[in-house]
Amino acid sequence: MTEGVNVSAAGNQRGSLRLSDLQGRDDRGLVCRKCGCRHFYTIYTRAKPGCILRLKECRHCGQRMVTRERAG
Ligand SMILES: [Zn+2]
Fold first, then answer.
1. How far is the CA of 30 from the centre of ligand 1 (A)?
2. pLDDT number for residue 26
3. How close is the Cα of 17 to the center of ligand 1, in Å?
4. 3 belongs to a structural domain
5. What is this structure's pTM?
6. How far apart are CA 72 and CA 64, in angstroms?
7. To 10 degrees, the CA torsion angle through 61, 65, 70, 72?
């Protein structure tokens, strides 16, 4: 969507989160691995037995990632 936003440099500086922390958990603390943005649109949700999958899209750069949340 909006390109040219000067967030990519700042996002890459953050080294406190590992990629493994960004997936397979609830979306609190979810950070775009591409630009470091924390704001996502949920564009798809799918309930599965025992968990909920959500496809999220970064509002800044459009990076998509899937999160898995425990249901119940
Ligand atoms: Zn992003």
1. 11
2. 47
3. 15
4. no
5. 0.56
6. 25
7. 60
How many A from CA of 47 to the centre of ligand 1? 25
Asked if residue 39 is part of any domain, the answer here is yes
Q: Do the domain assignments include residue 2?
A: no
At 65 the pLDDT is 92
How close is the Cα of 34 to the center of ligand 1, in Å? 5
Residue 14, judged by CB atoms within 10 A of its CB (0-12, 13-18, 19+), counts as exposed
* Distance from residue 60's CA to the centre of ligand 1 (Å): 5
* Tens-digit pLDDT string for the chain (72 aa): 555 555 444 444 455 555 555 454 445 678 999 999 999 999 999 999 999 999 999 999 999 999 998 876
pLDDT attached to residue 55: 95
